[in-house]
Amino acid sequence: MKIAIVYASKTGNTEELAYLLWSLFLQKNRDTALFRVDQFPVWELAGFDAVVVGTYTWGNGEIPYEMMELYRAFETLEVSSMITGAAGTGDSGYPRYCGAVDEFRDMLYVQTNLAATLKIEVIPQAKDLERCKKFVDAIVQRINQRIALGS
Ligand SMILES: Cc1cc2nc3c(=O)[nH]c(=O)nc-3n(C[C@H](O)[C@H](O)[C@H](O)COP(=O)(O)O)c2cc1C
């Protein structure tokens, strides 16, 4: 089972979250690749069994421009059996806290087999570790179910 974490980060917060999630998948001995979105071969999206999207939020609760190609790829490719997770950082001082995570969550729920979502206030801290672990566990559990069913 091939897992990808694909993220966008302007000031490094979401990058830190993506690296943390990556290390948690590796601790569970999962074959996981980490990509900045501008280095992700979007045409290979459907080749992954599970994909975690990591995004910051911009404007008024919006998805960053550089994530839109990936967003549209989920909408247009046949990825209905792909296990996914939507994660991101944001700032609750804005009216639409982590709005980009909400947008990805809603789309991934329709297009894929969404297993978990995760919102982190600005940058992951020690108090967030348990929630990050739960997020990774939910995805790994969904993958294990898939393996057990042999599909
Ligand atoms: C111009 C601007 C608009 C933002 N809009 C939102 C927003 O609508 N909702 C939100 O939760 N965070 C918003 N943020 C906060 C960022 O999403 C947050 O700082 C995030 O952690 C940045 O991630 P990065 O360091 O990976 O780039 C905004 C930040 C800036 C500078």
TrEMBL record:
Protein name: Flavodoxin domain-containing protein
Record domain Flavodoxin-like: where: 3-140
The protein's role, per its UniProt record: Low-potential electron donor to a number of redox enzymes.
One MF term in the entry's GO annotations: oxidoreductase activity, acting on NAD(P)H
Cofactor(s) listed in the protein's UniProt record: FMN
InterPro entries assigned: Flavodoxin (IPR050619), Flavodoxin/NO_synth (IPR008254), Flavodoxin_CS (IPR001226), Flavoprotein-like_sf (IPR029039)
UniProt keyword annotation of Flavoprotein present: yes
